[in-house]
Design goal:
Blueprint lengths: L7 E4 L9 H14 L7 H5 L6 H12 L5 H19 L4 H12 L4 E5 L3 H11 L7 E4 L11 H10 L6 E5 L2 H9 L3 E4 L17 E2 L9 H10 L6 E2 L1
Parallel strand pairs: 1-2, 1-4, 2-3, 4-5, 5-6, 6-7
Protein name: HAD family phosphatase
InterPro entries: HAD-like_sf, HAD-SF_hydro_IA, HAD_sf, PGP-like_dom2
Organism: Streptomyces rubrogriseus
């Protein structure tokens, strides 16, 4: 069966592997300010956690009545974001340990993210995670972003793994929904603690209610080894 019973692990990037949501918020705040929307708040940003950058700016265009094209908004937001990511992207220490633990055992791993290919590459290079995470799928490369399953199904295809053999790590409700729709098991680590009771997280096989503060590489690895094929748990 191979390592961990033939399981492959697919990681969401933003808010799961890397504490990048503050950078996405700041990039969004700067972008909207340029287009005459001066009061974009963190609470406003939280509504977009887990949704692709392209779908986020398309919603901004509608919501704020912006005259710029989606393509222009996307380019401006990505430019702001890349400037922040290249200088200060930070991987969660326990997530880094988990990636290294899996890679050391030869477990196939991938990233499936709503961010642009350029943003994903910049973050992985900045954090050094690119040494282990070489299979990468952006929502820009598939028909639909999360909560549709497309990015996860494409990651499984590139890994050569059946979806049922994949375990997804996700911090956001749309991502947990996408994993479920893909027929994959999910370890959910909610980024927004107030969303831990969201119905999408109820589909996860392992829910770490306390988010990154409670996640440990060893506990996740132990769950994969012993319970990854079994019942739903909450810790």
């Amino acid at each position: 069966m191979g390592p961990l019973g033939g399981i492959s692990v697919i990681f969401d990037l933003d808010g799961t592997l890397v504490d990048s949501e503050p950078h996405y918020y700041e990039a969004g705040r700067r972008t909207l300010a340029e287009y005459g929307v001066p009061d974009f708040s963190w609470a406003d940003h939280e509504a977009y956690v887990g949704i692709s950058t392209q779908e986020t700016v398309a919603d901004w265009k509608r919501r704020y009545g912006l005259r710029a094209t989606v393509e222009e908004l996307l380019a401006v937001k990505n430019r702001h974001y890349l400037g922040l990511a290249r200088t200060s992207a930070r991987a969660y220490p326990e997530m880094r340990k988990f990636v290294e633990l899996l890679a050391g055992e030869g477990v196939p791993v991938a990233v499936a993210s709503g961010s642009s290919p350029e943003a994903i590459a910049a973050i992985l290079a900045r954090t050094g995670l690119d040494a282990h995470l070489r299979t990468v799928v952006s929502a820009d490369e598939v028909a639909r972003g999360k909560p549709a399953p497309d990015v996860f199904l494409e990651a499984a295809r590139r890994l050569g793994t059946e979806p049922a053999r994949c375990v997804v790590l996700e911090d956001a409700a749309p991502g947990a929904a996408a994993a479920h729709a893909a027929g994959m098991r999910c370890i959910a680590i909610p980024y927004v603690s107030g969303q831990a009771d969201a119905p999408e997280f109820a589909t996860a096989e392992l829910l770490v209610r306390g988010g990154q503060e409670e996640f440990t590489a060893r506990a996740a690895h132990d769950w994969l080894r012993t319970d990854g094929n079994a019942t739903r748990e909450t810790i």
